[in-house]
């Protein structure tokens, strides 16, 4: 996976241009922005919170803040998606603080009709196992790992989102990966990883 | 790096790749709510046309200059300096010419001629 892809300047300017079109009243831009940004926000919230209803609430609130700021958005400021990830991360942090525990649902994944029932079960088992392992991490580690290894962002962008240094991001993701390996210890065969 | 650690890394990366390949599906109802919010919050096209015009005009500095120029122009119309031609008369078709007698009477009115004897 190309981790630098999300930092491409064209993508940043496209996002800003789309937001400007939205602010100018273009109805197509509203749909395009919603279609581009909502899955990313929801995916991140779902991985960090591990709860469908809370992830939906956070996504709707984060997108609402994007619509609200659109008329005042200045091109040349932060990248739109970076700003939106930061809002989402903060909303998730607020939820996690209020919750106080890590009692989380499993992430329900859709079944792929192209795969056999056995493959579907294994794929679901892998996603669930990773989510359960993620849920055991401290909140900041989980956010950093999800941003880096699932959302595929580069460390400087994660640093901007979590408002910490790049070194702190590196430390969080390294510790997070170590903890994940420990949490997944002994599940290799059950997850079918030995076949690969 | 030990073989075990290396294998663990590969397996973890396989799980990450699986998660990336199968992101949580956005519920249709939630997407509909997000789009509805977007439409509710979207500024109207009329407002944006005004904003575009304003931006094309040069924004606040240009508008400030225009207001200043308008005020100066208005004041010059009300109380034009002596060095300016009588624009109103020229526009209205009234010709003003120098009238020594009239000017003399004005001077008389001030009593300057009396003062000088």
TrEMBL record, chain A:
Molecular functions per Gene Ontology: DNA binding; sigma factor activity
Signal peptide start and end residues: none
Keywords: DNA-binding, Sigma factor, Transcription, Transcription regulation
Keyword Transcription: yes
GO biological process: DNA-templated transcription initiation
Domain RNA polymerase sigma factor 70 region 4 type: 129-180
One Pfam family it belongs to: Sigma70_r4_2
InterPro entries according to UniProt: RNA_pol_sigma-70-like, RNA_pol_sigma-70_dom, RNA_pol_sigma70_r2, RNA_pol_sigma70_r4_t2, RNA_pol_sigma_r2, RNA_pol_sigma_r3/r4-like, WH-like_DNA-bd_sf
CDD domains associated with the record: Sigma70_r4
Chain ranges of the RNA polymerase sigma-70 region domain: 37-100
Family: Belongs to the sigma-70 factor family. ECF subfamily.
Protein name per the record: RNA polymerase sigma factor
Organism this protein belongs to: Sulfitobacter sediminilitoris
UniProtKB/TrEMBL annotation, chain B:
Protein name as it appears in the record: Dihydroorotate dehydrogenase
Species annotation: Sulfitobacter sediminilitoris
Regions crossing the membrane: 53-76
Keywords from the UniProt entry: Membrane, Transmembrane, Transmembrane helix
């Amino acid at each position: 996976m190309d981790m630098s892809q999300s930092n491409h300047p064209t993508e940043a300017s496209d996002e800003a241009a789309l937001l400007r079109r939205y602010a100018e009243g273009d109805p197509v831009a509203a749909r395009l922005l919603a279609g581009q940004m909502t899955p990313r926000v929801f995916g991140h919230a779902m991985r960090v919170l591990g709860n469908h209803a809370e992830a939906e609430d956070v996504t709707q609130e984060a997108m609402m803040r994007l619509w609200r700021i659109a008329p005042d958005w200045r091109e040349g400021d932060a990248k739109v998606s970076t700003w939106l990830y930061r809002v989402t991360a903060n909303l998730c942090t607020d939820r996690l603080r209020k919750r106080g525990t890590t009692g989380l649902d499993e992430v329900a994944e859709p079944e792929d009709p192209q795969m056999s029932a056995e493959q579907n079960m294994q794929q679901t088992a892998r996603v669930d196992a990773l989510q359960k392992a993620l849920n055991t991490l401290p909140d900041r580690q989980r956010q950093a790992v999800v941003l880096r290894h699932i959302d595929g962002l580069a460390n400087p962008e994660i640093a901007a989102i979590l408002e910490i240094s790049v070194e702190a991001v590196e430390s969080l993701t390294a510790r997070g990966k170590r903890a994940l390996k420990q949490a997944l210890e002994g599940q290799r065969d059950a997850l079918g990883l030995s076949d690969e | 790096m030990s073989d075990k650690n290396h294998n663990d890394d590969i397996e973890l990366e396989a799980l990450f790749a699986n998660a990336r390949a199968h992101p949580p599906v956005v519920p249709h109802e939630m997407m509909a709510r997000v789009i509805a919010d977007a439409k509710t919050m979207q500024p109207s096209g009329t407002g944006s046309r005004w904003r575009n015009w304003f931006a094309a005009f040069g924004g606040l500095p240009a508008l400030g200059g225009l207001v200043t120029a308008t005020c100066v122009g208005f004041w010059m119309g009300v109380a034009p300096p002596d060095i300016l031609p009588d624009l109103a008369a020229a526009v209205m078709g009234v010709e003003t010419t120098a009238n020594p007698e009239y000017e003399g009477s004005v001077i008389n009115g001030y009593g300057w001629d009396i003062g000088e004897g």
